[in-house]
UniProtKB/TrEMBL annotation:
This is (+)-neomenthol dehydrogenase. It comes from Zea mays (Maize). Belongs to the short-chain dehydrogenases/reductases (SDR) family. InterPro entries: NAD(P)-bd_dom_sf, SDR_fam. It holds the Pfam family adh_short. GO terms for molecular function: oxidoreductase activity. Gene3D superfamilies: NAD(P)-binding Rossmann-like Domain (3.40.50.720). Keywords: NADP, Oxidoreductase.
Length: 197
């Protein structure tokens, strides 16, 4: 009976209301941008500044149905922060108008906003890495972690998932590592690692 209830719960949540989609983009994309902007001066003053954005398998462009959109999001040279913001707004407009599939956004299998927000955050991280070559900036998929989104069905605990980000951030660091977890919104975790502070 647990399995049937879980399937019903997943089916109920696979169609997102607009407000949930907007909140998802605000958390997973705009939230990362806001925290990064606030902390960037501190990271730039470090000789070993690191940013590790926790991403997701669902942030891969393979979930997008349109080749033009995939190409634009994968272009490091042709993409800007301003354009990412425009794409974020365009996603919400297309979501509201029921045009996700027609415009090339992720639409199959539910969680369209989550997939789009993680893809936008990945692109933002690549832009940051290009703009700040002295910093190590990466996105890490922590694995299938037990979260509210998957109703606790993940194979990894939150702690095990967090190790992916923190171990990646410390790779190649010199000296003592300091790390803090910033949670600007529930569900958004940006790990910023600096060594030394």
């Amino acid at each position: 009976m647990d399995l049937m209830q879980r399937i019903e719960a997943i089916n109920r949540h696979s169609t997102e209301p607009y407000e949930q989609a907007e909140k998802c983009l605000n958390t997973n994309y705009h939230g990362i941008k806001a925290v990064t902007k606030a902390l960037l001066p501190l990271l730039q003053s470090s000789s070993h500044g690191r940013i590790v954005n926790l991403s997701s398998y669902y942030g891969l462009l393979r979930f997008f149905s349109g080749d033009e959109l995939k190409e634009e999001l994968s272009s490091i040279d042709g993409l800007s922060k301003q354009r990412l913001d425009e794409l974020s707004e365009l996603f919400l407009k297309d979501f509201k108008d029921g045009q996700l599939e027609a415009q090339g956004w992720p639409n199959e299998g539910g969680f369209a906003a989550y997939k789009a927000s993680k893809a936008l955050a990945n692109a933002y991280s690549r832009i940051l890495a290009k703009e700040h070559p002295s910093l190590r900036i990466n996105c890490v998929h922590p694995g299938y972690v037990q979260t509210d989104m998957n109703f606790g069905s993940g194979h990894l605990t939150v702690e095990e998932g967090a190790r992916a980000g923190s171990s990646h951030a410390g790779h190649g660091a010199q000296g003592r590592r300091h790390w803090r977890v910033f949670r600007p919104h529930r569900g958004c975790v940006l790990r910023v690692i600096c060594s030394p502070l």
